Amino acid sequence: MSDPSAPFDRPDVILPPAARQADARSRVAVADIAVSLFQAQGYEATSTAQIASAAGVSRSTFFRQFRSKDDVIFADHEELLEQICDYFAAEHDDPWLAVCEAATLVFERFRERLEIVRVRDLLVRQTSVLRDRETVMVSRYEKTFSAYLRRTLRAVDPVVAIQFAAAVTATHNFELRRMIRAVDAERMPDSADLSVELLRVRARFTPVAARREAVEAPARDLLIAVFPVSALPEDVARVIEKRLRSAAL
């Protein structure tokens, strides 16, 4: 439940980049403390006053940073969304790939904070109001991705941009859950695994670009084989395997 003492609105203050980064780090630090308190005491049993006290800030400072107790647990998402917007503000040769790279950036940030992210995941699964807030956060990533594509690829059908953004977000979230809930560290996906899956998504949505890259690939990266229709499948497989192995040497 939202804290009833929280103000309805917080004035928007435009900060210079350095101050904005410092503010974001401060917000994430408070959020990490809040998550630890939620884990120890329970979400409902933890008050904003307790969070502010543990973080060493006043209640007024807390409410300048967060609208409510519900907001504090997702503070790092706000920072990541700002980083994505900054990333998209730069020029990118391939906007489709830029969206994939932005999703990988988010994944890597969560991997760096895996311990606290795992605690939050458990809290979210146990608390309905946090599940609702998480759904809202996911939609913000999708909207940020699709808005960027629609802005930079005006010839692309807006529906395609929306579908691509949804596919990238869903793929990211699937791999993120696998990482968070992995029992065996050896089987835990990493950023490279996510990148492979996202490139597959990109290939489905940008077949022309994918075909062009294949055509422009160096000849040494291509194997062209011609067999008579009477050739046995096992002979075809054996010859191709032999050629591929020799090319890899």
UniProtKB/TrEMBL annotation:
<dbReference type="Pfam" id="PF00440">
    <property type="entry name" value="TetR_N"/>
</dbReference>
<dbReference type="InterPro" id="IPR001647">
    <property type="entry name" value="HTH_TetR"/>
</dbReference>
<keyword id="KW-0238">DNA-binding</keyword>
<dbReference type="InterPro" id="IPR050109">
    <property type="entry name" value="HTH-type_TetR-like_transc_reg"/>
</dbReference>
<protein>
    <submittedName>
        <fullName>TetR family transcriptional regulator</fullName>
    </submittedName>
</protein>
<dbReference type="InterPro" id="IPR009057">
    <property type="entry name" value="Homeodomain-like_sf"/>
</dbReference>
<feature type="domain" description="HTH tetR-type">
    <location>
        <begin position="24"/>
        <end position="84"/>
    </location>
</feature>
<dbReference type="GO" id="GO:0003700">
    <property type="term" value="F:DNA-binding transcription factor activity"/>
</dbReference>
<feature type="DNA-binding region" description="H-T-H motif">
    <location>
        <begin position="47"/>
        <end position="66"/>
    </location>
</feature>
<dbReference type="GO" id="GO:0000976">
    <property type="term" value="F:transcription cis-regulatory region binding"/>
</dbReference>
